[in-house]
Amino acid sequence: MARRLKRMLVLGVSGVLIILVVFVSITSPQSMSQQLEALKAFPFTNYTSTLPDLNLPANGAIIEKGNVKFTYMNPLGKRGSPDHIAALNTKTYRQLMNKQINEPKDYDMDTIRPPPSPEDYPDRANATILILVRNSEKIGITRTIRRFEDRFNRKFGYPYTFVNDKPFTDDFKDRMHQLTNAPCEFATIPPELWDKPSNINIEAETNAMRKLHSQNVVYALKQSYHNMCRFYSGNFYRVPELQKYKWYWRIEPKVEFYTDVNYDVFKYLEATNRIYGFTINLYDIEQTIESLWPDTINWLNTEDNYRFVNPNGAFQWLTENQQNPQKNEVAGYSTCHFWSNFEIADMDFFRGEAYEKWFQFLDSTGNFYYERWGDAPVRSLGLGLFANKTQLHWFRDIGYFHDPYQNCPNHENEKMKCKIAEPAIWDHLAKESCMGSWIDYGMEFDPYS
Ligand SMILES: Nc1nc2c(ncn2[C@@H]2O[C@H](COP(=O)(O)OP(=O)(O)OP(=O)(O)O)[C@@H](O)[C@H]2O)c(=O)[nH]1
Ligand SMILES: [Mg+2]
Prior knowledge:
The protein is an alpha/beta fold and 449 residues long. It is built from 17 helices and 16 strands. Magnesium ion binds at residues 252, 341, 402.
């Protein structure tokens, strides 16, 4: 009897244990090593991607005079076809975006709340709202500013700086003044910061642009677009009216802001030792920047330029080659970039020796015109190489939309007017987002949890 009881007890206990183990393994998140094993076991063995070279440091970077190199190390051991990797990275993104958030938690936000009135804000940051815009875009920019004032600036009163390659009309200026109580300054860009440099070979440029146009590259033939990209890549921070400022928040026509921002974003970045804030990051059209990366690597391997590379740069994000490997084949790197139509940044970084010398070199290649280098990839390459990645901040809490991409968080205080956790308004565009890669390789910690 006693033996039967003992056997029943043993059976009972082991049963409970088995149920417990099964339950825990179903409900608890996989450990990192389990995840890696699962990924390694993925059946698409014909897409093995790069295997880490054990002779390289974990960040894949060699930063030595005349020998600067960056290699994708696939630090999480991801394997699979590009479609599989895109699905995996989108899942990573959606999981994080679906978490309910409010504001950053790595700073005492109560110290940077809106002042009682925007007119009485003595310790406002040294910042401006920067808008490059044409007179003809009055309606589009009106829409943006209405929303922007409503969500942020009517509480803080940061001054606007409107810049344009042509003088602003009185009609445009009057309209802008009607939209805000904040000071507005209207600057005409000096031609040397905007116009195509005279040494550009027009025949070579025309042939190159016809080729890009025939590959359906948008805006290839548009002269002003090339000027705009060159200007926003490097020259904007030299506009005389911007000299007095350190910080800017760039906005543009026809964008949406979906969330209230109840803290001073400039002071937040400054207080947390950051220099750049973004909301979206994307892959680029590889044909537009074929020589940006190789030219940059050559430059880093010239004289002492290697010393500008920050040892904790976002190298794995820049070199990732699994989600859209054709980008790396054509452009030599991932093409991932911060989408610069939204940016909050410290101009002192761009005015500093590394970025400025590098931009002068880029400009000397003429490739803003012989190719169609965008300001977003240029800016992002500079930040990924010369800044510490801890200085780059994803404003995950700021709901933002520029057609067709968005940052749509699950915000505690908002009834979101966008589809939460979707990187774009069309499903098929999810693979154009680099955010999963940023989460895995760029973000060292989550400031929102
Ligand atoms: N003054 C002026 N502003 C320009 C010119 N070209 C572009 N911009 C501004 O530069 C910013 C970026 O230009 P967009 O045409 O929006 O470029 P994009 O965002 O790459 O393209 P979209 O996807 O069409 O919005 C916007 O704020 C424009 O208003 C120009 O020739 N003159
Ligand atoms: Mg735009």
